[in-house]
Amino acid sequence: MRVDLFDFELPPERIALRPAEPRDSARLLRVRPDGLADHIVSDLPQLLQPGDVLVFNDTRVIPAQLEGRRGDARIGATLHKREGPRDWRAFVRNAKRVRDGDRIEFGAGVSALAGAKADDGSILLSFEGDEPVEILLERAGRMPLPPYIAARREADARDAEDYQTMFAREKGAVAAPTAALHFTPGLIEALAARGIAHETLTLHVGAGTFLPVKADDTDDHRMHSEWGRIDAATADRLNAARAGGGRIVAVGTTSLRLLESATDEDGIVRPFEGDTAIFITPGYRFRAVDGLLTNFHLPRSTLFMLVSALMGRETMQAAYAHAIAEEYRFYSYGDASLLLP
């Protein structure tokens, strides 16, 4: 499909620079085939049904943004995907000044050797020393805010908490699964009291989620792979819930993509551990999920293509036009939509 079919105009002032407080006070646009309805996130127990299951991503964002030097050249690095105990693939700013074998000094006693560039322009960084890389990043790294926020303000101490979900446990993401930022312990308790369960899986979100689609046709776009895991017990509970008439509602596109990667043609969720580069566009037949709670996405992005696949492109264009007109807040720290096809 033509990528320009997924374009829309977004006023810059609609981009949220901070999350709603409290988190579950964010606005929520319910989208169904019979129309749109304005709510807030704390309305979710009334918008879902007993027996439904919400599926969250429990990945934890690491301080993956690094600033350093190679000689007299300033180098910026955003870690993208772990390749080994001490090796991370990274998108590098000023990459033309970095050659295979160069040492980059990131300060605080943290350094890495650069490897060769990959086809996507990323560079393999091999961190030196004996300390775990996670400890090195805590010392030298910054929280990797999305580029559309980072271009307008610096990351600060608040982001260390604001940009983690209440489920964040498994370290390894370089971007937050932002739909889950709206949830609080009180909301989870209210959902449970209504008979709505929740499960977790792990997908370590990579920086590739923010890369623009440069191709003119979706067939020519290559997705970056991300590592994920669903254990056997979780898969069994999800299958049992669906067999009992419950709906599986993914919280965030990361949860949805991993669920779809792990589900067979018969709609059975299988245990999964490994990389996925699934690219969901209109025409895709969903096997695992019956709904999606997600934030509002970038124009021409793979994520707007995904929600268009779930609900229909015309429906999502109308929903986004409504959200813009009603001054919903967009992107990672913005408001949410509940998509129920």
Automatic annotation (TrEMBL):
Pathway in which this enzyme or protein is active: tRNA modification; tRNA-queuosine biosynthesis
EC number per UniProt: 2.4.99.17
Entry annotated with the keyword Transmembrane helix: no
Main EC class the enzyme belongs to: transferase
GO cellular component annotations of the record: cytoplasm
Gene Ontology molecular functions: S-adenosylmethionine:tRNA ribosyltransferase-isomerase activity
UniProt-listed SUPFAM superfamilies: QueA-like
Cellular compartment(s): Cytoplasm
UniProt-listed GO biological process terms: tRNA queuosine(34) biosynthetic process
The protein's name in its UniProt record: S-adenosylmethionine:tRNA ribosyltransferase-isomerase
